[in-house]
Amino acid sequence: MTTADGTQNTAIWWIRRDIRLADNKALQSAAAVGKVVPLFVYDDTLLATAGEGRQQFMFRALNALDNSMDRALIYRDGPVADAVVEFCRLVGANTVHITEDFAPYGRRRDAAVEKALAADGRRLVRADTPYVIAPGTVRKDDGTPVKVFTPFYKRWLTHQWSSAPENSVEFADFRDLCVGSRMQEGWTSHSANPSEDAVWERFDEWAPRAMGDYKDARNNPAVDGTSMLSPYLKFGIVHPRQLLQRLDGSAGSDVFRSEIAWREFYADVLFHQPDTTWKNLQPKMDALPIDSGPQAEARFATFCAGKTGFPIVDAGVRQLLSSGWMHNRVRMIVASFLVKDLHLPWQWGAKFFMEHLLDGDVASNTHGWQWTAGTGTDASPFFRVFNPMGQSEKFDPDGEYLRRWIPEIAHLDNKSIHAPWTLGLLAPAEYPEPMVDHAVEREEALSRYKAVSGK
Question: Which of 126, 128, 260, 431 has its CA 20 to 30 A from that of 319?
Answer without folding.
Answer: 260
